## 1
Amino acid sequence: MSTRTSSHGTSRNRRGPHRSGQRPGGHLRTTNATATANRLIQSTSWGDPMQFNVLGPLELRVAGEPVPLGGLKQRSTLGYLLLNANKAVATSQLLRALWGDRTPPTARKMLQNAVSGLRTMLASHGTGDAEVLTHAPGYLLRVGDDRVDLSRFHAIVEEGRTELASGSWNSAARTLRRALELWRGPALADLVETGIDWPELTALQNSRLAALEDYVEAELAAGRHHEVVAELETAVETEPPREKLCGQLMLALYRCGRQADALSVYRRTRTRLISEFGLDPGHQLQQLERAILNQDPSLTRGPAGPVRSAPHVPRPREEITALPARPSAERPPAPPITERKWVSALLVQTEPTRTASGGHDPEDVDQTFRQLTSILREEVSRFGGTLHSAFGAVWLAAFGVRRTYEDDAERAIRAGFAIRRRLESQPGVAARVAVATGEALVTNPPGGAQAEVSGDVLESCMRLLGSVRPGEMRVCDTTRLASRGAVTYADSGPSAGDVIAVRPEHEAATISLPFVAREREQATLDRLLDDVRERRSPQLVTLLGEPGIGKSRLINEFRLAAEASGRARCLVGRTPRFGWNAPLTALADVVKSYCGISPGDSTATAVRKLSHHVQQLSDDAETTEWLLTHLRPLAGLQDDSRGPDEVGEAFEAWRRFLEEMAAREPLVVVLEDLQSADETLLNFAADLDERLGPVPLLVIATARPELLRRRPSWGCGKRDVTTLTVGPLSRDATWRLLESLLARHGLCHRLTSGAPHIDESRLRRELIDRVGGNPLFAAEHVRMLRNELLPGRELAIPSLAISGAAPSPSTSPDCPVRLPQSVYNIIAARLDTLSRTEKSVLQNAAVFDRVGWAEPIAAISGLGRGEVTDHLHYLEQRGFLARTRERSRQGEVKYEFRHSLVRDVAYSQLPRPDRAEKHQRCAAWLDGSATENAELLEHHSQRGELTFRTSSTRD
Ligand SMILES: Nc1ncnc2c1ncn2[C@@H]1O[C@H](COP(=O)(O)OP(=O)(O)OP(=O)(O)O)[C@@H](O)[C@H]1O
Ligand SMILES: [Mg+2]
C-alpha cells in the first residue's frame, strides 16, 4: 500500500523581479501611483457589478454573486486572458498555454468554442464591463483595471512602496497589508490543481513575495518585529529560499531577543541552499549572521533591548534592505524531479495533548501545538531532515528526501531522540517516537518547495508507532541495522528493540582493518613534515577524497608514526557531522586534546587543566590571563558572551596558543571533515598558514570533494599550501585488503561454496570491481558476505539487489554479489551533492551505455550539446566519470563511469516510466545516427519495451 504525504506550501517562484534599489521614486510617480490606487480602491468592492479575481481560485462575481465559468478550457482561457488583461494575446500563445507541446489537431476549434462561450457568458451579464475582442494576432480581453483584483494589487503595492520610500513606515505597512490581503490562496489555484504551470503565475507569486518583503520592511522599521515573526516563519518554511525573507526573519527574531533562533534560521537556510543549489548564502546574509553572532549594536534599535511597538523609528533603509535577491542566473535550473530514494520516516506522537494550563481551549491547544512544532522543526532540520506534516498530535518528518545523506537512518534516530528529550521537559507531554527506513518514490517540486513521498515506509512507520509505549522510541529492523555502532538498543524484555541511547558522534564504533598501500601519500606527508621542521614555517595540506576512501585512516597512520618517532606532536579537531551548535568545535577539540581534557571531566577539572597548560605555555601573567579569557569560552568551559571585538580576539588567542605550542615542539594539527565546516571555520582555516609566525606547524585538513563546490579555489595560488587527492586503491591492494578481511572471518574458501556454478576468479573480479578501490566498501562487502555465507549469524547489515542494475550489454547481466545498503547510501549521498541538472546528465549517461559522450546524452536529456559537454567535464572533475582515450566521430571526448556502482545507483533511482522513455530515446538516437552498434540498439529497444511493459502493468 502506498501512502502519500504532500506539502502545504506553494511551489512557484524562485525570486522576484523586484529589487529594492529599482523601486520607482520621484514625486510625479508617487502622485500618480497613489491616485491610481485610490481610484481602484474606491471603485471596487464585492458589491460592484462585475469583479474578476485571479489572486486565489478564478472567480467572476456579478453584484457580489459568483458566476459559473464553464468547462476547464473556458476557465483556463479566461484565466490566461486576465493575466494579460488589455493586451493582445496571440492564438499560438493561448494554444500553448492550454495544451503545452501536445496541441491536438482540434485545438483551434476548441479555443474558438471557449472564446465564444466566454463572450456569451459575459454578454449575458450585460454590464459591458468586459469583453473578449478578436485582435490580431489573437484575442484581447478588454476590462477596466478596477475590475480585476490583480490590477488593484499592483496599484496598492505601488502606493505602499511610495510611502515606504518616503519613510512613512506605519502607513506603508497598512497599505501593503491591504494589498496582501487581496490574496485568497495561490493565484488561479483551481487551474493550477489541474496541472497548468504558466510562467506568468511564477512572476505573480514573486510579486506577492516582494510585496511581503516590503511589508515586513515597513513593520520592522516601525518596531513591530514581534508581529511579523509568525508570518515570516511560515513564508521561509514554505517558499523556496529567498535570502531577503530569511534575513528579515533573522533580524526580527534577533530583535525579539531570540538570537539562537535567528542563527538557526541562517543555518537552515544555508543547509537548504547548499543541498538544493550547491551554493552558500549570499554575502549579505553571511554578514548578517556575523553581526548577530557579534551582537552588533546596529541590529538593535536601542539600549533597552527589544521593544514591542513604536510609532516611528527613523532607521536608514539600507540597513534593512541590505538583502536583495541574487540574480536567477546564479541558480541551476530545478525542474520537478521524481526519483526512487531510500528514506527514513520519523513519526512523533505526543499524548495527551494537554496545554500548559491543563485546559482544552482551542487557542491554548494551538499555542502548545506551535511550541511543539517549533521544537520538532528545529531538531529535524538540525539533523538534515524536513518536517512534512502534522495531523493532530502526530508529526511526520523525513530524512533523505530533499538530499540523501549516507547516515539518514542515524540522523532520524538522533533527531527523534533529541525531540523526545526536549518534549520530556514540557509539562504534561509524553512522546512516542518511531523511525522506519525504506525505498520511496520522492517528487521534489521546482524551487525547493516541500516534496511528496510515496511508499510503504510511511505505512510501516505508522504501524510501528502503534506498538510504541509513551515515552519510548522504536525503529524498524532496517533502521536498526543501518545505525549500528551509533545507537544502543534494549536487547531483551518488553522494550527489546527500543532505543536506549545514542552515542556521541565521534564515538561511533569503527572497523579496524590491516592498513594497505598509501605509500605515496605517506611519503608526501613525511616530506611536508620534514620541510616544516627544517624551515620552521607553517604549511597547510588538504587531503581530498570521497567518503570511505581512507583520509582519516591515512592521517591516523601518519600521526602514529610521527609521534612514535618523536618527530612531532599531533592534535586532532573534528567538525561535527550534524547540527550547528558549535561551529568552532574543531578548534575546541585541539585545545582540549592538548590539555588532556576528556568528555567525562567536570568543568572545574577541565578549567584547572586548561589553566595549567596555558601557564606552561606563556611566561607572563598578562598573556596567560588573555589566553584563558578567550580559550575558556571556546572550549565550552564558560558562557560565551563575547562581544564583536572579542570573537576576532578569540581567533587571535587560538593562533597564539598554536604558535606557543609549536614553538616548543614541532606540531601537527589535523582538522577533519572541512566539507561540513561552517563559514567561520573555513575562513579561519584558509588563511591560517599566513597568519602564523615562523613555527614548525603542519596543519592537515581532510575534506570530501564537496568542499570544492563551496570553495572552488580552495588553497589555490598560495605558497605553503598543498592539496593531495586520496584516490582509490589499486586492484592489487584492494584484493590484499579483501583477502585479509575474508581470512579474518574464515570466508576465503566459502566464497563459492553456496554457488558452485560460479567461477571463483570471476567472483573475485566482480568483488574487486564492486569495491572500486574504496576500503570502506571492501569492509562493508565482506561484512555482508559474512552474513550471507555463514548460516545462523545474526543479520548485521542489510543488502540489496539494486533494481534495474546492469543496464548495459557491456556488463555482466547477473552479478552474483549483492550490494550492502550502506554502500548504496554512500553513493546515493554523493549523487545528491550534484545539482539537479548534473545529476540528470549522469543518470542519462547511466542509461546510455558504459561509455558515453555529449551527443547521445544531449539527445536523451533534451539539453544542449554544449551544456552537456560542460556537465560531463565537471562530472569528470568531481570523480564520477573518467575520460577514455576514445573520441566520437565529431571528436567529442567519451567518458566512462569511474565506478560501476555509481552507474548502477544513478540508474536505479530513475522511476520505471522514465527509464523506459530514456531507453526508447537511446534506441531512436542510435537508429538515426551513423553509429553502428546493432547490439546496443537491440538492447535499448528491448529494455525500453520491457521497462515500459513493467511500468504500465504495475503503475
Ligand atoms: N589503506 C587502508 N588500508 C586498510 N583500511 C583502510 C585503509 N584506508 C581506509 N581504511 C579503512 O576504511 C574505513 C574508512 O576509512 P576512513 O574513515 O579513513 O575514510 P574517510 O576517507 O576518512 O571517509 P570520510 O569522508 O567518511 O571521513 C575505515 O575503517 C578505515 O580503517
Ligand atoms: Mg574521515
## 2
Amino acid sequence: MLGPSPLAAASRVENLRQLTRDTHARLDHAVMAQGIFRDRARFAGFLRMQHGFHADIAPLYARADLLAHFPDLAARTRLDLVAADLCALGGDLPPPRRELPASSLPLPAALGWLYVAEGSNLGAAVILKLASSLGLGVHFGASHLAPAAEGVANHWRRFTSALDAVALDAHEEADVVAGARAAFTRVHVHLREAFA
Ligand code: HEM
C-alpha cells in the first residue's frame, strides 16, 4: 500500500489541467474545424458529440460514492439539457449505448471523467456566445451551455475544491489522470462519429 501521493492535494486539478492540455487543445481545434457555427445542422453535430459524452457519464451523477464527495453532483448532470437542445434542432436522440460502465468505474477513474465533464463548463461560455449568431441560446438549442446560477467560476471552484479534497494514494492519483485522458479520448471518438 502506497502512502499519500507526493502531489499536494491542492495541485490535483492543476496536474489534470497540465496533463490534459494537449488533448484539450486538439479537441478544441477539431471541434472548431467542423465549422459548428456555420449553420444549425453543423451545430447539431456538436450536440450529437455532447449527447454521446453526457450519455456515457450520466450514471456518474447518481453514484453514492461520488455524491459523498460532491453533495451537489446530482444537480450538475446536463444530459437532459443536451437532449432538449438536440431535439430543438430537430435531431434524433441516438439510442442509449452501454459501452462505458460509468456505474462501475473505480472511484479514481470516475473522478477523472468528472473533471473533464465539469471542466467543459468553462469553455461553454465561448461556445454559447458564438452560437448566438445562429439564433441559439439558453432558451433554445444551447441550454446545456448556460452558466450555473451561482456563476461559472463559483460552480467550478466548488467542484475543484471537492475534487482536490479527496484523499488518494499515488496509484489512485495516476488513475484519476488516466480517467481524464480516457474521457477526452472518448469525446474525440464522439466527435468523429457525430460528423461521420
Ligand atoms: C470548441 C470547443 C471548446 C472550446 C472553445 C473550449 C474552451 C475552453 C476554455 C476557454 C476553457 C477555460 C480555460 C481557462 O479558463 O483556463 C476550457 C476549459 C476546459 N475545457 Fe474546454 N473548450 C472546448 C471544448 C471542450 C470539450 C468538448 C471538453 C470536454 C468534454 C472540454 C473540457 C475542458 C476542461 C476539462 C477544461 C478545464 C481545464 C482546467 O482549467 O482545469 N472542453 N475550455
## 3
Amino acid sequence: MLLAVVLTVIAVVSTLTIRAFLMSQLDQRVIDAGARAGPGVVVHLGAPPGEPPGLDFLRGPGVEPDAVGVRRFPDGTVSGAVLDGGTPPRLRELTREQTEAVLGIPADAEPHTLSVPGLGDYRLITVGHPDSGELVVTGVPMASVQEAIQQVLTVEVVVSAAGLVAAGLALVVVVKLALRPLRRVAGTAIRVSGQNLHEGEVEWLERVPAADTDPRTEVGQVGASLNRLLDHVTAALTARHATETRVRQFVADASHELRTPLASIRGYAELTRRGRAELPPDAAHAMRRVEAEATRMTSLVEDLLLLARLDAGRPLERTRVDLSPLVIDAVSDARAAGPGHHWRLTVPDEPLHVSADPARLQQVLVNLLANARTHTPPGTVVTTSLARLDGDAVELRVTDNGPGIAPEVLPNVFERFVRGDTSRSRSAGSTGLGLAIVAAVVAAHAGTVGVASAPGRTSFTVRLPAVNSQAGHSGSTPA
Ligand SMILES: Nc1ncnc2c1ncn2[C@@H]1O[C@H](COP(=O)(O)OP(=O)(O)OP(=O)(O)O)[C@@H](O)[C@H]1O
Ligand SMILES: [Mg+2]
C-alpha cells in the first residue's frame, strides 16, 4: 500500500511537471506565432483562389501543421483557416461555428485553451490593433502535448504495476524467510502446549533447537526464554509429582498401619460388650458406640487405602468376569439391606464378560446401590440394568426415582469428600468417598462413569470395555 501511494505520488508529480514544461514550450510557440501574425504585419491579400484572405502567415516558416488562424478586418469581415498538413500545404477555410468559437477567447494577448469544434483542443492567442480594431487569432494544436502526456502516463502505469508486483513477491519471500525461525519456535510452543501436564509424571518436554536460541536476535531471545520457561515448568511439575507421590505413599502407609489397631479396638469393644460380666447400661452403650465408630473408621481407612493404591497406578488383578452374577448378587444384598425400597433388575440372558478385578467392581456396585438406598426415602424404586452396547462396551446403569442430587453437589459429585450434607447422610456415616472410589475404579478399568440427576430421576451410568466381541442378540430379560 505504501509503495502504491509513493508510486502514485511520483507519477502525478512527474506528469504534472512534464505537462507544465510542454505547455510552456507550446505557449512560447503560440506567442511567437501570434507575434508574426499580429495586426499591422504586412498582409498579402492576394490569396490563392478558394483560400480565405489575410491568413497566408500560416504558410510562413515555423508554423506547424493543423495551426489555425482567424483575422477580423477593420471593416468587420472575418476570415479563418486551418493549415492542412499536406504538400504543398493548403489552407482550409473554417466553418462559421469554428470561427466564432475561436473569436470568443479574450483578446488579452495571453495564450488560452479552447476546444475548437471538429478540430480538438488548441492553445490560442489573440492580438488586436488598438486603433483599427483589427484582430488576429493564432492557435496551435495541443495534440502533441496530449499524446506525450498520454505516453508518459502509460509508461508510468505499466512500470508502477510491474514494480508493485515484483515488490509484493519479494516481500512475501523475504517475510517468509525472516519468519521461519519464529515459526519453528511457535511450533515447539504449540507441541508442548498440546501435552498433558495437569497430572501424573512429567513427560519429557520438547525444547527449542539451539539454533533458534541466539540471544543476539529477537527470535533467539524468544526461543531462549521459552526454553527457560520449559525448564521451570519441568522442574515445577517434577516437584509436584514427587510431592504427590509422597502424600499418596503417606496416606497408603497410614491407612495400612491404622487397620490393625482399629481391628483390635473393634474386637475388644465387642468382647467387653458380650462378656460374662454384666455392664452398667451406660457403659454398654458406650461400648456399642465405640464398636460402631471403629467399624466406620475401618471402612473409611479401607476406602483411603484403596484410593491411594488406585492413585499410585497399581496394576489391577484382571480376570475375565461375567458381570451378570456380580450384579445379581449386589442387588440381592442391597435388597436385604434396604427392604423399604423397591429393587428392580434387568440383565441380558447372555453372559457379559469384562476384563476386571471382580472385588473392585463389586465395590463399584455396592457404592452405587448404597447411595441409592441411603440418599433416598423408603419406597423409592431403584432400577439396575446391564446391557451390551454397540462397539464392544458394557453399560451398567443404576437409576432411582428419589429426590436427586443437590445441584450444588452434582458437578463435583465424583470428587473426594464431596457429599450432600443432609442429616440423613450424616447419621448414616457418610464420608463422601463412595463415588470417588467408583470413579477411580472405573478409570482404572479404562471405563467411564457419568451421572444425570433431577428430582425424581437420578441415574449413574458406568461403561466398561467388553472382552468378547460376540455381537448379536442382546435382548434383556427381567430377573
Ligand atoms: N442416588 C442418589 N440420590 C441422591 N443423592 C445422591 C445419590 N448418590 C449420591 N448422592 C449424593 O452425592 C453425595 C456423594 O456421594 P458419595 O457416595 O460419594 O458419598 P456419600 O454417599 O455421602 O458417602 P460414602 O459413600 O463415602 O459413605 C452424597 O452425599 C449424596 O448427597
Ligand atoms: Mg455413598
